[in-house]
Amino acid sequence: MNKGIMYGVLAYLLWGLLPLYWKLFLDVPADELLGHRIVWSFFFVGLILLLTRSWKRMGASLGDRRKRFAVIFCSLVISVNWLLFIWAVNAGHVLETSLGYYINPLINVVFGVLFLKEKMKGGQWVAIGLATVGVAIMTLKYGQVPWVAIALALTFALYGLGKKVAGLESMVSLAWETMLVLPIALAYLLWIHAAGTDVAVSLSAGKWMLLMLSGVATALPLYWFAQAARTLPLSMIGFLQYLAPSTSLLLAVFLFKEPFTVAHLVSFGLIWSGLAVFTFTTVRKKPAEPQVLADSQG
Fold first, then answer.
1. Is 224 within a domain?
2. How far are the Cα atoms of 95, 200, 206, 246 from residue 209, in angstroms, in the given order?
3. Phi, psi for 102 (deg, rounded to 5)
4. Which helix (H) or strand (E) holds 258?
5. How many domains does the chain have?
6. Is there a domain that residue 296 lies in?
């Protein structure tokens, strides 16, 4: 149990601290950073699979058409999620990324009802209602929908739905997801290099080393999370998953100095209340069932 908690805390803390990492590359466009993240993630995950002799399981993992389509879908959706997250962080919207990952568990519930025919308890409906009111308040106050938060939450919920359908283990799944978009990422990076518009080429050697570590930053928390999910009950993972957006929220307000107004406080307060109701309802429903709730955040 203690080792599982340690792995869970490390995974969610690293996911929450990812804005600090991407802030190191403010001068590099988000699409170029995405290309590098895909390339280096594939090589790092491939190295892990090679060392653990897991490559043989990749071929056998996609045994039917349904799984193949699910993995292709996951690959495209997580690429969009990564691109949006990187852009949002470096455009000064870390607060909205935090909001997105707070409301993501509630959207997961809605998707479970719509696509997997799951049934919801009354408390879960209350939680979704509170979160909806919170988002509405922010929309009315600032005159625009917090589209970054909603898009991140939706793409990550769709990714989770695809993972549910595919049913693959974490590293094998991530290897397939990055492999499928690897040719596109490599072609794009080569194209902008040939055109002379790539920015990463001018980075220092130290920054290049850090950029190559984007694969580690992507896969390592995923590995830690998988270790935690094997030993921790659903209730514990349910509480730990809010560590990541809470960390990002603190970074946004206290380090990046993004504005946090009374409207934000009311909106976030409603969403936090909804999450409290949701967590309580979920824990009562399944008190000790291990379950993977996230896979490749941020």
1. yes
2. 28, 11, 5, 28
3. -75, -40
4. none
5. 1
6. no
